[in-house]
From TrEMBL, chain A:
SUPFAM superfamilies: LuxS/MPP-like metallohydrolase. Transmembrane segments: none annotated. Residues 181-362 form the Peptidase M16 C-terminal domain. Residues 63-174 form the Peptidase M16 N-terminal domain. InterPro entries: Metalloenz_LuxS/M16, MPP/UQCRC_Complex, Pept_M16_N, Peptidase_M16_C. GO terms for molecular function: metal ion binding. This is Predicted Zn-dependent peptidase. It holds the Pfam family Peptidase_M16.
TrEMBL record, chain B:
Pfam families: Peptidase_M16_C. One of its GO terms (molecular function) is metal ion binding. It comes from Gracilibacillus orientalis. Residues 184-355 form the Peptidase M16 C-terminal domain. This is Predicted Zn-dependent peptidase.
């Protein structure tokens, strides 16, 4: 087991890779009453085409299967795992994103029992034809619930406008039609391929003893048999640089229309440091323009084009990246036009040295504040670990970014062909 | 659990609560101005948080104010208003990174406190009032907030339930105020009323974080101008229940069926820990009776839960149902309450619920806001019970105590917000 002390932030990470390939990270924090654990597989909604474990041929599975699998893991032959956690006084949950599926709990007592419950339930699937059929109705309800949420529809509408082929554009939960085709065998195929310990990470943060906890996990894993670890072949379609559609409009009942502008990334750095720097820079530039202290925010607010719902966010992953900016507005066309213009102006007028340093300070403070939360630490550390990056170390990369780095970045960041617009409007 | 020590220091003009803990990398300062809920002042108090964040004498625009916060390593300023029991609270808080974690930072706490003082005592003024342009624009922000609350049907149904159930009590008042008041509020009146809050509300100041050796006590003295501390008035309990049913219609697909109960048990009552456990068994968790029966067993609702109000002695049940399921859902919810009264829950369920309740409270103390809010509950209730003592009491709750609480809880109002097409057999 390796121990690493991060001096500036006063945190400690104990890490080990077990013989079956599972990566385990422990961040002890004895001051906290709570312990939070998250068991993550490097498998999300975009992993649709892959070579199943021990097979040769590429296979494509139905949209929404990673999320479906997440639901089904909680159901065992004789019980629902949520109740197991309840009995221990712990609260459990799970989520599926574009690139990850994660299972988690928090508790303030009986930590070992909850840890064992977490690891065992994820590593012992029980799928039957009958329970798969039953789940289709429940997930269809969930999908319909999302269909009624204007913000969710707008978010996915923007992503769909950005991408021609990349599976990031399919809804994480799939569609009512696509999940209809999911079978028990599909679930086992995905499970065997992506839930191998070699493709997973376990992060435990909080009131635990690192040695004891690591030994406990190791012992648990030693008692289980897994096939030999093997690299997973995943296939993604070639994606053009330019957006798929410059403009899309979604019609649904909303009292105030929405306008979102999407930015599609075409270059994703392979080098971890460059990757991370790009992500910081995207974040800093969007903050400079569109945060509450942003220069564009002030202009848009003064013009009466935006309200409190206005926001921006970025996602950067191994093989895709995008940003989305927008919110509710009285004049969707005008807002979209104004946001695009602000972005295109970046090439000629970016922020000054003082503004750059100010936003860097803000980012450093924001990270520190977020680190009050064990959930944040565990989620972020795992996220970057799966991308080959040590999140705590990367804070130093942020501190070392210069104004010149930012200028280089903004010179080439935005081109008209990477921008798209999504409107949500009520039926006339 | 590592101990977080609270020291309460009564000062001239305010009560200072210092909570030293190494749990967090930030320092939190929170000023809570507390006053009785009144129809006359509620809209002004709802509007003030928006105004105070729009500019000060030295940072006269919102962007200048925000950029100064960025300079202080992303310090967060938040101002909001809320109601607890029959009190209204104007809350001004600042969250600063603790400079021991930031290389090269200096005097962050002093700078933060100086800024906070400016926000509170030197807002941007024109003549004898707030800047009228800011007031006019922020009235619109509040107006759209009031408007958007109508779109959140759960919150709307709960608001309507409380208005009808407590129609003769101050608790009925809407926390975001009333649209018809907005036009009447002038920039001068609002500023005059703000002065009244600064000088005459009850004031508690909380400082939370790794604060030992930072001389916070002295620094807070410089933050607050001379003022007179006022006592907190406790809300009145109302023993009699209305026993009424109210049905309203709206343009919705999913109906909201809400119940209002009077527990008459408040934070400082002997029965309060048992009330927590009662709520956990009845509707506080996904393993509770309401969720398991209304949703899981009968598939009647998308959600079904209960929540207690700790300072007025109320409990609310929330459920979202198909409009045609009203009678059935009502029957099942009432049945769950009967089962609670008859003690139809196992010893295992009782001990699991106690454990979950304790977990939840302890997790609250792992969060700076949660820590402040839990301590502030004792302030409002004028109780000396600490969070730790509350946890210990929850742990000793017996089945008889839970049944006893269940039998004290009285149904007051059933409120149904349903679709325009729904047929009702009962009116």
């Amino acid at each position: 087991m390796k121990h690493k002390h991060y001096q500036q932030i006063e945190e400690n990470i104990y890490a080990d890779t077990l013989s079956n390939g599972l990566r385990v990270f422990i961040l002890p924090k004895q001051e906290m009453a709570k312990t939070f654990a998250i068991f993550t597989t490097d498998y999300g909604s975009i992993d649709q085409s892959f070579v199943p474990l021990n097979e040769q041929d590429l296979q494509t599975v139905p949209d929404g299967i990673a999320h479906f699998l997440e639901h089904k893991l909680f159901e065992k032959e004789d019980r629902d795992v949520f109740q197991d956690f309840s009995k221990l006084g712990a609260s459990a949950n799970a989520f599926t994103s574009f690139t990850k599926t994660a299972y988690l709990f928090s508790a303030t007592s009986k930590i070992k029992e909850s840890l064992q419950t977490l690891v065992d339930f994820v590593q012992n699937p029980y799928f039957s034809e009958q329970s798969v059929e039953k789940e289709k109705g429940i997930i269809a309800q969930e999908i319909r619930m999302y269909d009624d949420q204007p913000d969710w529809r707008a978010f996915f509408g923007t992503i769909k406008s950005l991408y021609h082929h990349h599976p990031v554009q399919i809804d994480i939960a799939g569609t009512v039609e696509s999940i209809h085709n999911i079978t028990k065998d599909d679930l086992y195929t995905c499970y065997r391929t992506f839930y191998h310990p070699n493709n997973m990470a376990l992060f435990i943060a909080g009131n635990v003893d690192p040695e004891e906890t690591m030994a406990f996990i190791k012992n648990n894993q030693d008692q289980k048999d897994f096939e030999a670890p093997a690299p997973i072949t995943r296939k993604f379609p070639d994606e053009p640089k330019e957006v798929a559609e410059k403009e899309v409009t979604i019609t649904m009942p909303v009292s105030v229309p929405k306008a979102l502008v999407g930015i599609k990334e075409s270059v994703i750095p392979k080098d971890p440091k460059e990757f991370m720097e790009k992500e910081w820079l995207m974040d800093i530039v969007l903050d400079h323009l569109f945060s509450k202290s942003g220069v564009a925010y002030e202009r848009l607010y003064e013009a009466g084009l935006i309200d409190q719902s206005f926001s921006s966010e970025s996602h950067l992953e191994r093989n895709f990246g995008f940003s989305i900016i927008g919110g509710n507005t009285k004049d969707p066309e005008k807002l979209a036009q104004a946001i695009k213009q602000e972005l295109l102006n970046l090439q000629t007028t970016s922020m000054d040295q003082q503004g750059f340093e100010r936003i860097k300070r803000k980012k450093i403070g924001q990270i520190l504040r977020a680190m009050n939360s064990l959930e944040f630490i565990a989620n972020q550390y795992t996220h970057y670990q799966l991308l080959g990056i040590d999140f705590f170390e990367s804070i130093e990369w942020l501190e070392n970014l210069t104004h010149a780095d930012m200028q280089d970045f903004t010179k080439n960041w935005i081109n008209e062909e990477q921008l798209s617009t999504c409107f949500v409007k009520a039926n006339e | 659990m590592a101990e977080s020590l609270e020291r309460i220091i009564p000062r001239e003009g305010y009560d200072l609560h210092l909570i030293h803990t190494k749990k967090f990398k930030t320092i939190h300062l929170s000023l809570k101005f507390t006053s009785k809920l009144t129809r006359e002042n509620i809209t002004k108090r709802a509007l003030l948080p928006y105004i105070l964040q729009q500019g000060t004498e030295n940072y006269p625009t919102a962007i200048q104010l925000r950029q100064h916060l960025d300079e202080l390593y992303g310090t967060v300023l938040a101002v909001d208003s809320s109601k607890k029991g029959e009190n209204h609270i104007l809350n001004i808080r600042l969250e600063l990174p603790n400079e021991q974690y930031i290389a090269g930072s200096q005097d962050l706490l002093d700078k933060g406190i100086a800024f906070l003082r400016e926000v509170i005592y030197q807002p941007k003024l024109v003549n004898q009032g707030f800047d009228p342009k800011i007031v006019a624009r922020e009235k619109e922000t509040l107006r759209s907030k009031m408007e958007s609350l109508k779109e959140d049907k759960i919150s709307f149904a709960n608001t309507r339930l409380i208005e009808e159930m407590c129609n003769e009590e101050a608790y009925r008042l809407r926390v975001h105020g009333y649209e018809e008041d907005l036009d009447k509020i002038t920039a001068e009146d609002l500023y005059a009323y703000y002065q009244q809050i600064l000088n005459q509300d009850h004031l508690d100041i909380f400082a939370v974080g790794d604060i030992e050796g930072l001389y916070v006590e002295g620094k807070i003295t410089e933050l607050v101008d001379e003022r007179e501390q006022q006592p907190i008035e406790k809300g009145k309990k109302v023993a009699s229940a209305n026993e009424q049913t109210l049905i309203e219609k709206d343009d919705i697909k999913q109906a909201k069926l809400h119940f209002g109960y009077r527990t008459n048990i408040t934070f400082d009552d002997e029965d309060y820990p048992a009330l927590h456990v009662f709520n956990g068994l009845f509707g506080g968790f996904p393993s509770s009776k309401l969720f398991m029966n209304v949703r899981e067993k009968h598939s009647l609702a998308y959600y079904a839960a209960s929540r207690i109000e700790s300072h007025k002695g109320l409990m609310f049940v929330f459920s979202g149902i198909g409009p045609e399921q009203y009678e059935k859902a009502k029957e099942i919810i009432l049945e769950q309450m009967e089962e609670m009264r008859n003690g139809e829950f196992t010893d295992n369920e009782l001990s699991e619920t106690k454990e979950m309740t304790i977990n939840q409270l302890r997790e609250t103390l792992d969060n700076p806001h949660g820590m402040i809010e839990l301590h502030y509950q004792s302030v409002l209730a004028q109780s000396s019970i600490t969070p730790k003592e509350l946890l210990e009491k929850v742990n000793t709750v017996t089945k008889e105590q839970v049944m006893n609480v269940a039998n004290k809880v009285k149904l007051d109002t059933i409120y149904l917000l349903t679709s325009k097409e729904a047929e009702q057999s009962e009116a």
